[in-house]
Amino acid sequence: MPLDPRIRAVTDRIRDRSSDTRAAYLDRMARAAEAGPARAHLSCSNAAHAWAATGPDKADLAQGRAPHIGIVTAYNDMLSAHQPYEQYPDRIRAAARSVGATAQVAGGVPAMCDGVTQGRAGMELSLFSRDVIALSAGVALSHDCFDATLWLGICDKIVPGLIIAAATFGHLPAVFVPSGPMPSGLPNDEKAKVRQRFATGEASREELLAAEMASYHGPGTCTFYGTANSNQMLMELMGLHLPGAAFVNPGTGLREALTEAAVARAAAITALGPDYRPVARILDERAFVNGMVGLMATGGSTNLVLHLPAMARSAGILLDLQDFADISAAVPLVARVYPNGLADVNHFHAAGGMGWLVGELLAAGLVHDDVVTVAGDGLRPYAREPKLIDGALVWQDAPRSSLNPRILRPHTDPFAGTGGLVQLTGNLGRGVIKVSSVPADRHVIEAPARVFENQGAVKAAFQNGEFTSDVVVVVRFQGPRANGMPELHALTPVLAVLQDRGLRVALVTDGRMSGASGKVPAAIHVSPEAEAGGTLAKLRDGDLLRLDSLAGTLDVLTPGVLERAPVVADLAGNAHGTGRELFARLRAGATPATEGASIIL
C-alpha cells in the first residue's frame, strides 16, 4: 500500500523544518564513525584499566578483534519492570562469547517508579529523571570502548532518557532489550473501581491495598497501557527492538531466547562487519513518524507527547504539537487496551500484538516501510512474531486477522476514526487532550473554574463536599519550571467520582496526567506554564472556561482576564525535601512543554 499522503506531508514538513539541525547532527556522527573502533585509540594504561576486571574476556579484549558490546542498565528492584534485569549482564556476557564477542556493563542509570511516587513529593523529580538518565548514560559511554550498545530499560522516563543518550552516541549501533510485562492479575478496571470506592470512603485502606497488590503482583511491567508499555510499542515501530520482543513475559524460554538474539544482533551490526547499522541512521524523521502513528493507533500515553520531541531533538529532528495533531487526525484507533478498554497488554499480545499492529498499519499505508532497523531494512520484519520451536528461535508471520475484535480491529472498521489525541490552542495557551476513552458527550466542557495550586488542595475540596456543580478544575504551577511537572494521576479517582455523579467536569493543568489517564477530559501540558506568566496564572475562581476537543480550542471566556497581572505563587514548598533541592537550578532553565520540557536539550 502506498504511503498515505497525510503521513507523507507530516514527514516532509518535519524533514524540512529539521534540515539544518539534522545535517549538523549527521555530520558529527559521521566524523565519530570515521575515527574507527574506539578501542584502537586506547593507550596501554587506558586498556589495562578498562579490561582489568573482565576475567575470561580479557585476552579477546586485549587482542582487539572481537566486537565489544557496552551494556547500559536501568536495573533496580524498586521497579517491577526492571527487576528481571538483575540477571541480564551475566546472560549477555555468555551470549556474547557464544557469537565471538565480548560484553561489559558500561554503567547504570537511575530509574524511579512513578507508581511509588504518584501523588508524593518524589514525583516532582520524575520528568527530569529522564534527563539525568541521559546524562548518566553519557558518562557510562564516555569510556569510549564499545563497538555496539545494549540498553536495558522499559519504564516511563527511562526509555526516553536512554534514547537521548543512544542518539548522542549515534555512531554506535544500539539494540534495546526489554524484559516484558508481568502476567495478568486483578483486572485494571476492577482495581480502578476500588480506587473510586476508596475516594468516597466506601472501601477501606485494607481493601484498597489488597486490590493494588493483586494488580501489581510480580516481576515485569505493569499490565495497563501506560507510558512504559507505550515505550515498548515505540521501540518496535521505531526499529530498535528485535521484532515481537516487547510483550513476552519475563522468566520464559522465549524471553531468554530473545535476549540472546539481541546480543547476537548487536555484535553483527558493528562497524567491524559488513552490516553496520548505527543508531543515527535508524532514528530519522521516518522512524519518529512511525512512532507517532503507533501512538495514535493504540491510544498510547500522553507522556510521549513530551518525550518524543526531546528524543527527536537529540537526533537533530524538530517535532511540533501540530505534527502529533495531524497524525492523530489521519490514523484510526485500532486497539483498545486499558485505560482505553478492558484488555491489558497480555490480552493485546494474545490477540495479535505488535506483529498484527505493524502488519495492519503497513496494509493501511500509515507507516514508512523504507526505514532502517536493527533487524534489517524495512518495517515488514516487525509484522512477524517470534516463536520458540524445538528450542530454536524463529520468526513467523503474525496473524493478519484480529483474534479478538474487542481488542484489535482493522483500519477499515476501527474503534474510532482518529487516534484520539487533540492539540488545543486558545487564549489559555497550547496543550493536548487524549479523548480516546472520554465519552462523546464530554468532548466539550464549558463551566466555571475552580483554581488550585496543588493536587492536595483539590482532594481536600472534594472531601469537604465543595464540588456540587459543573466545574473545570484548574491545577496550575505544575509545569516544568514550577515544580518539575509531576503527574497528577492521583486526581483521576476524585474527578471520575464527580463525573459519575453526573457533573460536567474537566481538568486544565500545566502539569501531566499519565499514561493511565482515562475517561475524564483533561487539558494537560498547557504552555506557557503559570510560572512563566501564562494565562493560567491570571485565572480566578468562577472564570468561565471552555475546553472544546472537537474544535481543538482551550479558552477563558470571561472578559478582562488577559489584562490581569499574573499571580506569583509561593513555590517554597517545592524547593526542599526528597531531593528536590538538587534540581532547583535545573528547573529554572527547563524548556517549555511544547519543546519536550528538558533541562539539557
Describe this structure in words.
One of its GO terms (biological process) is Entner-Doudoroff pathway through 6-phosphogluconate. It catalyses: 6-phospho-D-gluconate = 2-dehydro-3-deoxy-6-phospho-D-gluconate + H2O. The chain has 601 residues and is α/β, with parallel strands linked by helices. The protein folds into 2 domains: 5-183 and 218-397, no CATH class; 421-595, 3-Layer(bba) Sandwich (Glucose Oxidase, domain 1), CATH 3.50.30.80. It has helices at residues 5-17, 19-34, 44-51, 58-63, 88-98, 114-117, 126-141, 158-168, 188-199, 205-215, 227-237, 253-268, 279-282, 285-298, 304-313, 321-330, 345-351, 353-363, 455-463, 480-483, 492-500, 584-588, and strands spanning 68-73, 102-108, 148-152, 174-176, 384-389, 392-397, 421-426, 429-434, 444-452, 471-475, 505-509, 522-527, 544-548, 553-556. A hairpin with a 4-residue loop joins strand 13 and strand 14. Helix 9 packs across helix 21 (492-500) and helix 11 (227-237) crosses helix 14. The protein is globular, with a radius of gyration of 24 Å.
